[in-house]
Design brief:
Shape: globular
Structural class: alpha/beta
Number of strands: 15
GO molecular function, one term: quinone reductase (NADPH) activity
CATH architecture of the largest domain: Alpha-Beta Complex
Pfam family, one: ADH_zinc_N
GO cellular component, one term: cytosol
Protein name: Quinone oxidoreductase
Keywords: NADP, Oxidoreductase
Distance between the termini: 10 Å
Number of helices: 9
Length: 324
């Protein structure tokens, strides 16, 4: 089969489309013929070397996809050949076919198509744990969500609106602000033309937000802390502009006895029962129309470098997928 491989860290130009040998599934594994693959900013981190690859180089990027089970190894009971399934993790999704630990595969309900699943598994389950577990959002809360027009941000706006909270977003253009407003946000701040921390204080009458969800990193810290109420929660779950630099924990005290956390999806779905419950919650809000997954860009698998260029230039909105 063919896959996108990385033999050295660098820019999008290091992504190579090449033939790769694929073994038969071993014990606990399933062979998946992929029909769609999700693209996420974490893929950029592994390509550039910001995040070390678990198995070193060379590597195949990608942490989510969907497709058809073609064969299973010894002892597999979670799925069977012919099943439509999706997954978020482990790495290796930028490929026509791949082996996946069978206990990481989630059967797809009839109401969720393959493209939607590939675009939604990582981003949608991220929103699920952020809004339903890291901080349980409800009608009494005001939240700030950075990158409101991105794949995670658009899902978060719709889901948060359904939960009844007030959601403020940030985005980098008037067009992106308008898109976020169409997807559940109450107010959206163009951070290129406004001081978002000052504007949040104005919008909240000086009170601030209960929680800030930040996937931007360096460019939005420490100003994100100035958007919080006393004892509010800062949730850092990405580094699109670069990693947050080390800081004195005393800063949290100075700004109102704040909390800070750096969660990852994989900690929340490590157990299969938690994976299935998180995915079921996501599939439920997709199937009932609460959340629409906007796939605003798709690229052939061979053009993964173009997908990365679009993502890093912040030219994308919603979700991006690769089609094997």
């Amino acid at each position: 089969m063919r896959a996108i491989r990385v033999h050295q860290h660098g820019g999008p130009e290091v992504l190579s489309f090449e033939e790769v040998a694929l073994a038969a599934p071993g014990p606990g594994e399933a062979l998946l013929r992929q029909t769609a693959v999700g693209v996420n900013f974490i893929d950029v981190y592994f390509r550039s070397g910001l995040y070390p690859a678990p198995a070193g180089l060379p590597l195949t990027l990608g942490s989510e996809g969907a497709g058809i089970v073609e064969a299973v190894g010894e002892g597999v009971t979670a799925v069977k050949p012919g099943d439509r399934v999706a997954y978020a993790g482990p790495m290796g999704a930028y490929a026509e076919s791949r082996l996946v630990p069978a206990d990481r595969l989630v059967p797809l309900p009839d109401g969720v198509d393959d493209r939607t699943a590939a675009a939604a598994m990582l981003k949608g389950m991220t929103v699920q744990y952020l809004l339903r577990q890291t901080f349980k959002v409800g009608p009494e809360h005001t939240i700030l969500f950075h990158a409101a027009a991105g794949g995670v941000g658009l899902i978060a706006g719709q889901w948060a609106r359904a939960l009844g909270c007030r959601i403020i977003g940030t985005a980098g253009s008037d067009e992106k602000c308008a898109l976020a407003l169409e997807n559940g946000y109450d107010e959206v701040i163009n951070y290129r033309t406004e001081n978002f921390a000052q504007r949040v204080r104005e919008l909240t009458g000086g009170a601030g937000c209960d929680v800030v969800y930040d996937s931007i990193g360096k460019d939005t810290f420490p100003a994100s802390l100035d958007c919080l109420k006393p004892r509010g929660l800062f949730v850092s779950f990405g580094n699109a502009s670069g990693a947050v630099e080390a800081f004195n924990l005393g800063l949290l005290s100075q700004k109102g006895s704040l909390y800070a956390t750096r969660p990852t999806l994989f900690s929340y779905v490590a157990k299969r029962e938690d994976l299935l419950a998180t995915a079921a919650d996501l599939f439920g809000v997709i199937a009932d129309g609460t959340v629409h997954i906007a796939i605003n860009q798709d690229f052939p698998l061979a053009a993964a470098a173009d997908a990365h260029r679009a993502l890093e230039s912040r030219a994308t909105t919603g979700s991006t997928i690769l089609l094997p």
